[in-house]
Design a protein that fits this description.
3-stranded antiparallel β-sheet, KH_dom-like_a/b, R3H_dom, single chain, globular, DNA-binding, about 170 residues, 6 strands
């Protein structure tokens, strides 16, 4: 980042496939080091899709489940992004998953959208969802739009949440 940029106004330029793969490799190295320190087993898979590097930790045993909670995965992702940024000098949009927790969270988010839309169909003008990460908000925005409803983000920082409205 240049001295004029802050973490909140990072550039949105598209990275090349090679840069995304390099981000994934750096992230995998960092996570592997953390797993070694914590004496946890796990296999690390790297994928590149939709302009992002995806790093997944799978396998291991039930001890890996300690890292699979939503808040732990978010913290691991934040730390990993910082480690990659320290090496590359640019913001990384990589996504980290542990033990399929992202897929489980996506199902939870879809259920939240179902419940919100049911409330709107029953007469409410709008429904506010719980605060969530920018990645989760993006997933919900997409899901809401796909169903023909509107959504907008409100709030700042960790309190930022989505408001779903009738069409």
């Amino acid at each position: 980042m240049t001295t004029e940029q802050t973490a909140s106004d990072h550039p949105t330029e598209e990275l090349s496939l090679a840069e995304l793969e390099a981000d994934g490799d750096l992230a995998a190295d960092y996570i592997e080091g953390l797993l070694d320190i914590a004496d946890l087993d796990g296999d690390i898979d790297i994928d590149v899709a939709n302009g992002r590097a995806y790093v997944s930790v799978t396998g291991g045993d039930e001890s890996l489940d300690r890292l699979a909670s939503s808040s732990a995965v978010q913290a691991l992702q934040d730390l990993t992004r910082l480690a990659v940024q320290a090496k590359t000098g640019r913001f990384s949009r990589l996504i980290v998953d542990v033990g399929g927790s992202r897929s489980a969270r996506e199902l939870e988010l879809k259920k939240m959208v179902d419940a919100a839309i049911a409330q709107i169909a029953a007469g409410r003008e709008q429904v506010a969802l719980e605060p969530m990460s920018s990645y989760e908000r993006k997933l919900v925005h997409d899901e809401v739009a796909e169903r023909g409803y509107f959504s907008e983000s409100k709030g700042e920082g960790r309190d930022r949440r989505l408001i779903i409205k009738r069409p």
